[in-house]
């Protein structure tokens, strides 16, 4: 059958709710979501096997983005689709993949790493996998409460299998963390297997359609061949064959951090669409007292809140793709046995994941606030987008922890620069900074990019100097590092911002040569706005570390305000161009037709509290108090 995926999925009635899911109980929400998740999974499987064929391109992405509308929250199979399969594809041997990656597999899996006691510091994970050469099996065990797995999406009720991160022991020697495939529920009855204690962790700030779970093993046995063996092996006699790089096991986290950047761009485009369209419909106060009330989008302060969201969505889209291509390149190199580019990719992924999630959640919240009181309604969909987005600041590597990973990388290059050793081209500016080869400030995108590089150099130097000072004062390295950690994270953040500015500007300039002149003008305005916005936000740092002057900052401010005025006529067109369907946006404030107040009233009418003219609580609780003395 030939289909257009959007239309096909949008026409499956069971996927769309009559009652908004906020009115359902915790249990009903999950059950409703899981019903829909398996309809979607069936479509994905049919696409995969070619049973249905598609007439539009980017199909998995289309299905992925439509999911936001279907679930309003999150697909309980997100980790099954997004992490379980991809980890097997990346880390299992060819034979294991042939056995496990069957499109009609009975396995519904999840990625089980975090424990009650350890999330960030994964070397501290306590679950053990001990090789028993007499039976050719691993014994998975949870030695104490803090070793219970806690958080994995879909683990509570949905998954019957999982990839478990555990400390590998062979003949009493610990070989560190490895990944194992374990069945946890019977495929037919879905009952937990003997030796498995599994359940759901309870309601959260968001992600409430996903059954995040806990899991404990009581000496649970799995075949030796269930360890993921592409990069590392345990042989039948217990011989351990080391991987070519000891962090290859962390590869799934690296890949997810890269894909998250694009996902966050998409969340930003949803928030921007809602807030900009609403701001074009909403009128509140005249600007001049004798004029009619104006669209709130005409307030320059409102443009300041919203246009940076549109621009940031483009930034993360562009940088997400750039990182995706880098990941592809580095993975191909690793395949050939060359690990040389892995540290750089890891350092970039860490700081970009950290900053993209932090920016996205801050900007989504800014969009919500920009919609005034109505942004606080669940029916605006902005609270759900915020709850979804802010989780990304923590999961897949907590914000500060990831910035500190990138800081290790920066400090290494600063040390080379300080010792006058050769530097790679992309860090040549460290040497310029040391030699005080400062460029004269230019009030242009290129000038701002240079200025941001000076901030990276200046902040890395400050952190490095503090680190060295702590060491000279007799501190051990780890303690000295901890004492410098505020400055180290500042340096990483600056590095991420300089990368975002540079990549976005260069890619936009290139793209501009391939599109119509009028489109090129708008794209460059957005890119320039992004750079000006952050130069003004960070003007204190620029004053400290670059040659910018007060007059330059005033000129930047004027240009920024000019850009807001230039973008204003195209603002609605720019968000329409994100091309997000109403069914996916799920927002009374952001629908294409602008019927904001009508939709708000229609949604309110769905409230169960409006079912009876007089709610029975009146008779039970209110009347006995208010009428007591009047009888
Ligand atoms: C990295 C850690 C913080 C520290 O690890 P260690 O203690 O082992 O490190 P050391 O200190 O010993 O060594 C550091 C050393 O190692 C290098 N390193 C570290 N990691 C890597 C790596 N991955 N690759 C390469 N190198 C690495 C590092 O550079 C150092 O090198 P030097 O010594 O030379 O300096 C670690 O503990 C850690 O990672 N902690 C974080 C834990 C974490 O991230 N947990 C995640 C759990 S899973 C999870 O949270 C899932 C969440 C839900 C995900 C939702 C998915 C959404 C998917 C969206 C998909 C969108 C799809 C869109 C599709 C479409 O659009 O089409
Ligand atoms: C919605 C959601 C879904 C998730 N899904 C999964 C999943 O599918 N599978 C899975 O395995 N896990 C999952 N997780 C768990 C997630 O990966 C962890 O919560 C995350 O890695 C952070 O670890 P933590 O909770 O231990 O935080 P902690 O590390 O305890 O962080 C607490 C604080 O301590 C600070 N801190 C910790 N270490 C350091 C350090 N070295 N230096 C400086 N500061 C530090 C942090 O900055 C933070 O401020 C999920 C979490 C959420 C919220």
TrEMBL record:
What gene is this protein a product of?
LOC112051253
- What cofactor is needed? FAD
| Keywords associated with the record | FAD, Fatty acid metabolism, Flavoprotein, Lipid metabolism, Oxidoreductase, Peroxisome
Q: Which family does it belong to?
A: Belongs to the acyl-CoA oxidase family.
| Domain of life per record | Eukaryota
Sequence ranges assigned to domain Acyl-CoA oxidase C-alpha1 in this UniProt record: 250-411
From the UniProt record, give the pathway where this protein acts: Lipid metabolism; peroxisomal fatty acid beta-oxidation
Write out the annotated subcellular location: Peroxisome
Protein name in UniProt: Acyl-coenzyme A oxidase
Quick one: where is this thing mainly located? other
Domain Acyl-coenzyme A oxidase N-terminal, which positions? Answer: 7-103
Q: Which residues form the Acyl-CoA oxidase C-terminal domain?
A: 445-625
């Amino acid at each position: 059958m030939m289909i257009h995926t959007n239309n096909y999925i949008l026409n499956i009635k069971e996927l769309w709710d009559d009652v908004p899911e906020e009115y359902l109980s915790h249990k009903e929400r999950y059950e409703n979501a899981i019903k829909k998740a398996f309809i979607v999974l069936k479509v994905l499987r049919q696409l995969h096997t070619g049973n249905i064929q598609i007439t539009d391109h980017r199909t998995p992405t289309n299905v992925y983005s439509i999911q936001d509308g279907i679930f309003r929250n999150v697909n309980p199979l997100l980790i099954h689709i997004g992490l379980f399969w991809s980890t097997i594809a990346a880390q299992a041997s060819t034979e294991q993949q042939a056995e496990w990656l069957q499109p009609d597999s009975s396995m519904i899996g999840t990625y089980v790493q975090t424990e009650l006691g350890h999330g960030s510091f994964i070397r501290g994970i306590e679950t053990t996998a001990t090789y028993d050469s007499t039976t050719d099996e691993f014994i998975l065990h949870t030695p104490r409460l803090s070793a219970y797995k806690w958080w994995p999406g879909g683990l509570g009720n949905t998954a019957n299998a999982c990839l478990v991160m555990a400390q590998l022991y062979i003949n009493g020697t610990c070989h560190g963390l490895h990944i194992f495939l374990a069945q946890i529920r019977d495929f037919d009855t879905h009952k937990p297997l003997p030796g498995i204690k599994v359940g759901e962790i309870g309601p959260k700030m968001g992600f409430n359609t996903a059954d995040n779970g806990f899991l404990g093993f009581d000496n649970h046995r799995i075949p030796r061949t269930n360890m993921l063996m592409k990069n590392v092996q345990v042989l039948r006699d217990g011989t351990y064959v080391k991987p070519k790089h000891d962090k290859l096991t962390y590869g799934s986290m690296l890949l997810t951090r890269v894909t998250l950047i694009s996902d966050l761009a998409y969340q930003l485009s949803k928030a921007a669409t809602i807030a900009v369209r609403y701001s074009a419909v909403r009128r509140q106060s005249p600007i001049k007292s004798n004029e009619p009330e104006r669209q709130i989008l005409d307030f320059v302060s409102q443009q300041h809140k919203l246009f940076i969201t549109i621009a940031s969505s483009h930034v993360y889209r562009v940088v997400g793709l750039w990182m995706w291509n880098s990941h592809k390149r580095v993975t191909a190199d690793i395949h050939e046995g060359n690990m040389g580019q892995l540290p750089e990719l890891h350092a970039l992924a860490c700081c970009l994941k950290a900053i993209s999630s932090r920016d996205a959640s801050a900007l989504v919240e800014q969009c919500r606030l920009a919609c005034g009181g109505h942004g606080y309604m669940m029916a605006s969909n902005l609270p759900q987008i915020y709850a979804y987005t802010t989780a990304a600041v923590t999961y897949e590597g907590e914000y500060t922890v990831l910035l500190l990973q990138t800081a290790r990388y920066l400090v290494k290059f600063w040390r080379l620069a300080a010792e006058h050793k050769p530097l790679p081209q992309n860090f040549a500016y460290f040497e310029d900074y040391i030699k005080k080869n400062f460029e004269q400030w230019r009030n242009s995108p290129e000038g701002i990019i240079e200025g941001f590089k000076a901030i990276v150099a200046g902040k890395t130097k400050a952190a490095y100097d503090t680190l060295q000072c702590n060491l000279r004062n007799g501190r051990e390295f780890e303690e000295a590092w901890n004492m410098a950690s505020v400055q180290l994270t500042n340096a990483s953040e600056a590095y991420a911002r300089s990368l975002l500015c540079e990549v976005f500007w260069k890619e936009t300039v290139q793209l501009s040569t391939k599109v119509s002149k009028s489109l090129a003008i708008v794209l460059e305005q957005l890119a320039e706005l992004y750079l000006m916005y952050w130069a003004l936000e960070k003007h204190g740092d620029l004053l400290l570390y670059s040659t910018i002057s007060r007059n330059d900052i005033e000129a930047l401010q004027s240009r920024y305000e000019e850009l807001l005025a230039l973008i204003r006529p195209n603002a609605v067109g720019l968000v329409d161009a994100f091309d997000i369907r109403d069914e996916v946006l799920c927002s009374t404030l952001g629908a294409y037709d602008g019927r904001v107040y009508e939709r708000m009233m229609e949604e309110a009418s769905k409230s169960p509290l409006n079912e009876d003219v007089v709610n029975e609580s009146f008779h039970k609780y209110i009347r006995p108090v208010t009428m007591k003395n009047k009888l």
